[in-house]
Design goal:
The chain is an alpha/beta fold and 426 residues long. It is 39% helix and 13% strand. The protein has a seven-stranded mixed β-sheet, with helices on both faces. A five-stranded antiparallel β-sheet has the order 8-9-12-11-10, covered by helices on one side. Helix 3 crosses helix 4 and helix 10 packs across helix 12. The structure holds pyridoxal-5'-phosphate (PLP).
């Protein structure tokens, strides 16, 4: 058997295979660029380990209170080294990216403060944390107000609007790097830096926080090198390298990290408690693997864009543009196409490949959502996965792929399902 036979054995028809191989032939230069960034970031991570003097003893964990958890504390130093920040909070007690963002926001605001999103709204799940959508326990209930300045129609920052929105109560600015479920461009770290510089030129003491989810290691530099006081993300996305079974991180100034830590635990306890149990080894090893895992996910995303552009769908970003995150949006135009795409991704999975995903309600989201994931870690989106809210323009958001070869199969299988449902012609 050769590779083509193996694809056939998995259910990929000849015309799908040929279409995909032709698309791949165009991507050699893009892949070389991604490999170069992965090499840089791999070296950066190794240096961060070495500078923190990581030793075998750090791979083991603690139980109970978690006092003197040297593995956890050293891991936080490694994260601070990687992100070029004073400190970091990297914990298995942080349940998700949303939770990490939630404690970063709640820890760093006080009653009477205002949060400003100067580049469009925050991620869907932050709406309930902030209280944009009323929710029990939201920051709005604590007297913290919110203001938002949308991007200009051409996608640029509305500098006049931002200047007008900043007032004596503006305390924290939240900028989301990745496009999330919006159809704007993902911001490069350099563009985020320009926005932060502008905000700080008006009000120097404003805390600038970046939702860094999905962006880590896609470029050589992180937003923390461009003036962000805090960068925040999930360990079941890029920096966990597919190995972290849970967790989140906040890297930033000592003060910002401390204020988040006392919200995660309690005042007085802060970073001193929080047993790592058996997670330290996986957190270290996942971070070590992350530059290559992220590169595999990016290759999968670019391949998806190339294939779906050939099929006549609009892809965002397009296959030929520089990427700043691992998310690939494809405008599929109908619920049926979103379902077929996701069912293809599911059918290619190592786990639960026999399960058929359908749209349903999800906590934190205001429309039905479809999700495909056959992952080793529940909900992990550094693993091959696809999801999207069922609403116009019916964008599916595709991400992950621990290995490029598996990512490739997933995309081919999605095309196969679209073909079988009569939604495309090849
Ligand atoms: C995934 C994501 C989040 C939330 O992370 P969860 O782990 O799903 O809670 C926040 N912001 C962005 C941009 C994301 O992609």
């Amino acid at each position: 058997m050769d590779n083509r036979d193996m694809f056939r054995a998995l259910g990929i028809k000849e015309e799908v295979y040929t279409l995909c191989e032709e698309a791949l032939a165009d991507l050699r230069d893009r892949f070389a660029e991604i490999d170069s960034i992965a090499e840089y970031n791999q070296l950066k991570v190794v240096k961060a380990f070495q500078d923190a003097h990581v030793s075998e003893a750090h791979l083991y964990g603690t139980t109970g209170y978690g006092y003197d958890d040297i593995g956890r504390d050293t891991l936080e130093q490694v994260y601070a080294n990687v992100f070029g920040t004073e400190d970091a909070l990297v914990r298995s007690q942080i349940t998700s990216g949303t939770h990490a963002l939630g404690i970063a926001l709640a820890g760093n605001t006080r009653p009477g403060d205002e949060i400003l999103c100067p580049a469009g709204g925050p991620y869907d799940t932050l709406e309930e944390i902030i209280g944009i959508r009323p929710s029990t326990g939201s920051l709005a209930e604590y007297g913290i107000t919110y203001r938002q300045v949308d991007l200009l129609p051409d996608g640029g920052f509305d500098y006049d609007g931002i200047r007008a929105a900043i007032n004596e109560r503006t305390h924290l600015v939240e900028i989301q790097r990745s496009k999330g479920y919006a159809s704007r461009d993902t911001f490069s770290p350099e563009r985020i830096g320009e926005l932060i510089a502008f905000v700080k030129s008006i009000k120097p003491d404003v805390i600038c926080m970046v939702d860094n989810c999905y962006g880590e290691f896609t470029r050589r530099e992180e937003p923390s090198l461009y003036g962000a006081d805090m960068v925040v993300g999930s360990l079941i996305k890029n920096p966990g390298g597919g190995l972290a079974p849970l967790g989140g991180y906040i890297a930033g100034t000592k003060d910002c990290v401390e204020r988040a830590a006392v919200r995660l635990t309690t005042p007085g306890l802060g970073k001193e408690v929080g047993a790592s149990l058996d997670n330290n080894k996986l957190f270290y090893q996942g971070l070590f693997m992350s530059p290559v895992i992220t590169a595999n996910a990016e290759k999968t995303a670019i391949f998806a864009a190339k294939v779906y552009e050939r099929l006549g769908f609009q892809c965002h970003p397009s296959a030929d543009t520089t990427r700043y995150d691992i998310i690939q949006a494809i405008t599929l135009g109908s619920e049926e196409a979103m379902v077929a795409f996701c069912q293809g991704i599911q059918a290619a999975a190592p786990i639960d490949s026999f399960v058929t995903p359908y749209p349903d309600d999800m906590p934190g989201y205001d429309s039905k959502v479809i999700m495909a994931a056959g992952a080793f870690v529940q909900g992990s989106s550094i693993e091959l996965s696809a999801d999207g809210p069922i609403r116009a323009p019916y964008n599916v958001y595709f991400q992950g792929g621990l290995t490029w070869y598996h990512g490739k199969l997933g995309i081919m299988m999605s095309v196969q399902k679209m073909l079988e449902k009569g939604l495309i012609t090849i």
